[in-house]
Amino acid sequence: MTPFDEALVDWEVHARTRAQLGAAFVRILGYFREDGDKSVARIEDAMQRKDATGLVLPAHTIKTEARQFGAEPLGALAEEIEHEARSAIEMHFFPDHLIPQVARLRPLYLQTIDLLERDANPLRQRSSAGPGAA
Predict the structure, then answer these.
(1) Is the distance from CB of 71 to CB of 112 less than 8 angstroms?
(2) How far is it, in rounded angstroms, from Cα 71 to Cα 20?
(3) What is the tens place of the pLDDT at every residue in 10-59?
(4) How far apart are CA 39 and CA 6, in angstroms?
(5) Would the pTM count as exceeding 0.90?
(6) Cβ neighbours of residue 127 under 8 Å, at least 6 residues apart?
(7) 132: number of CA atoms within 13 Å, CB side?
(8) Which end of the chain is more exposed for a tag (fewer CB within 10 A), N or C?
(9) How far apart are alpha carbons 93 and 86 in whole angstroms?
(10) Kind and range of the H or E element at 18?
(11) Can you tell me the distance from the alpha carbon of 86 to that of 14, in angstroms, rounded to the nearest whole number?
């Protein structure tokens, strides 16, 4: 694991979630992948359509699920998008200033989900245990 990987996921939070979810962990991570794929696409679509309301729910979804898995940078970026979209709705304008954040969202999401899925892969876990591990 690289320092960059450490910056994307708080592995202590992740480990607590993994312990709490137990056998359901991989299934819930799969839901995060499905929800995240859809939410990122919805956010990008809402930006293209200049639909501030369309940014809120998918950003909220990513924020909540990312933080559940310890993916704080992803959660923080989604929270910024959600917060700014809500403010824009209240002030009756479209948040064009979010274009750079939305442009960063997909790459950050993909890097983060890749790390989480690699960590959850049982074959990777067995191979990292080393030779002679039971």
Answers:
(1) yes
(2) 16
(3) 999 999 999 999 999 999 999 999 999 999 999 999 999 999 999 999 99
(4) 24
(5) no
(6) none
(7) 0
(8) C
(9) 10
(10) helix 11-21
(11) 29
Type of residue found at 73: P
| Matching residue, tokens 């929270």 | 79
Burial (Cβ within 10 Å: 0-12, 13-18, ≥19) of residue 69: buried
Place of tokens 């990292």: 128
Q: Tokens 């954040």 sit at which residue?
A: 101
CB 41 within 8 A of CB 106: no
Cα(13)–Cα(56) distance, integer angstroms: 25
Identity of the residue numbered 25: F
Pairwise CA distance, residues 126 & 50, whole Å: 47
